[in-house]
Structures are given as C-alpha cells and as structure tokens.
Amino acid sequence: MSENNPLRDVFDAIADPTRRRLIQLLSEADEVPLHELTAQFPMGRTAVSKHLAILREAGLVTDRKVGRETRYRLHASPLREIEDWAAYYRKFWQKNLLRLNQLLEEEEE
Amino acid sequence: MSENNPLRDVFDAIADPTRRRLIQLLSEADEVPLHELTAQFPMGRTAVSKHLAILREAGLVTDRKVGRETRYRLHASPLREIEDWAAYYRKFWQKNLLRLNQLLEEEEE
DNA sequence: ATTATAAGACACCGTTTGGTGTCTTGTCAA
DNA sequence: TTGACAAGACACCAAACGGTGTCTTATAAT
C-alpha cells in the first residue's frame, strides 16, 4: 500500500532544510538505505527517519524493505505543484525587475 | 529601512496556506491595507499581521503607513529561488512520467 | 549459535508556531 | 472635541515540530 493520497502538504514538506537535502541526496542515487542517509546528517537515525516519513506523506518518497535495510527512492512529481505555483508569480518579479531597470536608467541620466 | 537581508527562509515563509493566500490576494491589487486583508480570513487581525510580518522577513512583502492604515505590497522576486529549486527537479518527474508511460505501454501489449 | 547491524516503535522534551485577548496610540470623521 | 476606527505591542496558550534515548525485532555475518 504505497500512500497515494497526500496526507501532507508538499509546501510544508519542503519547508525544512534537512528534508530538501534529503531530496537532493536521493536525486543523486536511485535508492538509498536509511543508515546511509543518516550518515550525511549531524542528527540521529530516528530524526532522519521522521523527516523521511514526512516526505513520504507528501508523496515525495517511496520506501521498500530489502533485507534488514529500508531503501528510499525519490518520487519527484509532486514538486510539479511547487514549480507551477512559483511560475505563476514569475510575471510579478519580472515586472519588478522592469521597474527597477527603469529607475536605474533614470538615475543614470 | 526596508529589510533587505532575508532573516527568514522563503521556503518556510510559503509553507503556510494562509500566507500563500495573502500572496495571492496581494498579487490581485497593488496595495492593500491590513484590515482589508483581515476581512478575507476566519481569524483575527493580530494573526494576519503576524503572517505578514513573516512574509516581510522573507522579503516577500513591503509595508508603508498611510494615515492610520498600514498598506502591504507584494514583492515577488524571492519566489525566483523557489521556482529555480523546483525546476531543477523537473527532469526527475519527467523521467518518472517516461517510465510510467513505458510500463503502461508494456501492460497494454 | 552467537553477535552485530538496521530500523521500527514509543516515550519524552524544549522550542516554535499559529492562534487568542487586551491595552494603548495615532488618525480620521461628526 | 469627542468618538470611532486602524493597527502596534504584549502576554498568554495549546498543539505541532524537531530532536533525543531506549527497547525490541529481524536479518546478516562470524
């Protein structure tokens, strides 16, 4: 039963820097066991495991047991919502840049 | 002194749905006073004001006093970091879509 | 068969978060 | 000039967050 309906807001899931780092690490290899991930952080296994649980609740990660280890895999598609959301506001900061450029040009005269 | 160095992580600032709604509301009009924003939410003025303070700390909003009201304005450029971050992972969910399509095609045979 | 490793489950804890209410100050309107 | 409105400042609170440590179970290695 691989959690399909997201119980956790994706925006919430990526808010924590540790979790963004986990996403990055998982993007560099296709499957990583918990203990190997834990080794990258200055915190204990339990904490990292909790962060991964949150990523899983947001649908950003799946896990499977292999022998005695639990291997995690990135499932990036929910990030599409983030990109779309931010892209929507692109026009606004582009507009700001435009106005900034205008001001700079005026000052140079 | 309009806060220039972001004391607050932008990812953190946009994690809350109320704050995302504020961003949306501010994108629809160029300047909105606090009481008018408050009217859109099921919570008190103090709470909305706190959310706006967090947005300001992330550089997403500026405010100015006009008479007895404080008017807020969207400053969207920090959202660029969000878009860039998410866009980086685009290839991963595209890859997933590709693999999903392959699986579906295989099943159809 | 024994020992070491991987990780789940759970209780615990201090800090942050997201809300409240109240009091005060400044400004606009009658 | 009196009253109403906008909002800052502050104290307060319950719940969530991000970490810890310990105990147990399953698997791998010697």
TrEMBL record, chains A, B:
Keywords: DNA-binding. It comes from the Bacteria. Coiled coil: none annotated. GO terms for molecular function: DNA binding; DNA-binding transcription factor activity. The keyword DNA-binding applies. CDD domains: HTH_ARSR (cd00090). Residues 1-94 form the HTH arsR-type domain. The keyword DNA-binding applies. SUPFAM superfamilies: Winged helix' DNA-binding domain (SSF46785). InterPro entries: ArsR-like_HTH, HTH_ArsR_DNA-bd_dom, WH-like_DNA-bd_sf, WH_DNA-bd_sf. This is Helix-turn-helix transcriptional regulator.
